[in-house]
Amino acid sequence: MNKRTILQSQQVLHSGVVHQRADWGSIHEKICQLLIPLRTSMPFYNSEEERKHGLQQLQQRQKHLIEFCYTVAQKYLFEGKHEDAVPAALHSLRFRMNVHGLSSVELVPAYLLLAEASLGLGRIVQAEEYLCQAQWTVLKSTECPYATHSLLHRNLGLLYMAKENYEEARYHLANDIYFASCAFGTEDIRTSGGYFHLANIFYGLKKLDRADTLYTKVSEIWNKYLNNHYQVLSQARIQQIDLLGKRFETDTGLDEAQEAEAIRILTSIWNIRESTSDTAPQKTIFVLKTLVMLYHLMMNSSKAQEYAMRALDLAREQQLSDQEQNSIQDLLSLISAEDAHPVT
To answer: Does any domain span residue 163?
Structure first.
């Protein structure tokens, strides 16, 4: 490892000390029990095989904590709780350093979380420091995954959006979409974030046609994903109700951070669609129905009913077809049927 890498890593950790004033309870209480084995001295092993097994177990615990802290930090960011995200991201970074070393590309996702949290807190210089370290690490790596390249460009796009350099922001978000498409495909929910942020740029610049096209694409990606889960799981739930008299418990297929991202993206698009619902009510209803499916799969029936009623009221107000109104009514009926059979 060269001196520059060591110095930059030390600077990042030093800057992280400033963030330690944040509420450590946002993550510490969640991982307190998981930390105990890591803080316990390694026992004496009778053989080399036992020693290796003990080290492997220790690394597995650290890797679990890396991912857990990362997901918690992501969730806080999508919920707009930037201060709470910092301690979780710092924990993820420290565990990554312990497992992978100071110059590994595995550190980059944690640097990017810290950069995004800093941007959310209005600390642009701090965000640039984290992004510089992430860029340097990626440049030095010979095997950086497409997904990591995507995240790096997305955060650079967010940085330049904060600095109101929209041309540079668009360049990085286009790269984000490219690398995410290479990693996951053009129609994957993990690619939709790049489209969403690019749409926000066009919307802010009053280029509404371009923004509308991208918002539609994002809505369709999430709708397709959720509808696939909705169709399969709703049928399973109905069968479970018929057979056992109780609701089938399941989830969205997303982790907590992805659920928070879906809520953030779809709610933002709905707010924008609502302002133009007089001219394009079908687009507003489409997003509302997607939110209904999301909350329905998250087992949040009150939210699902709320958005379904909004969709139904808008369909009636705009005098849309009976077919459109009936499809929304069917959603409400299904939610109500399940609500009448609480989990026992």
So the answer is: no
Per-residue CA distances from 250 to 146, 247, 274, 296, 343 (Å): 31, 9, 31, 10, 11
The domain containing residue 301 runs over which residues? 219-339
Give DSSP secondary structure letters for 101-164.
Answer: -TT-GGGHHHHHHHHHHHHHTT-HHHHHHHHHHHHHHHHH-S---HHHHHHHHHHHHHHHHHTT
Q: What are φ and ψ of residue 328, in 5° steps?
A: -70, -40
Give yes or no for a contact between 182 and 164, defined as CB atoms under 8 angstroms apart. Answer: no
Question: What is the separation of C-alpha 272 from the centre of its chain, rounded to a whole number of angstroms?
Answer: 20
Residue 34 placed within a domain: yes
CA distance 334 to 215: 28
* CB-side neighbour CA atoms (13 Å) of 173: 23
Q: Which of 81, 102, 123 is the last residue of a domain?
A: 102
Residue 298 has which token pair?
């998250």
> Residue 309 has what DSSP assignment?
H
User: What residues have CB less than 8 Å from 39, skipping those under 6 apart?
Assistant: none
Give the Cα separation of 340 and 344 in Å (integer).
12
* pTM, entire model: 0.81
User: How many Cβ atoms are within 10 Å of 267's Cβ, its own excluded?
Assistant: 14
- Model confidence pLDDT, tens digit, residues 161-188: 999 999 999 999 999 999 999 999 999 9
Q: Which of 280, 313, 276, 12 is nearest to 136 (CA)?
A: 12
Residues in the chain: 344
pLDDT one-digit tens code per residue, 182-208: 999 999 999 999 999 999 999 999 999
Residue 170 included in any domain? no
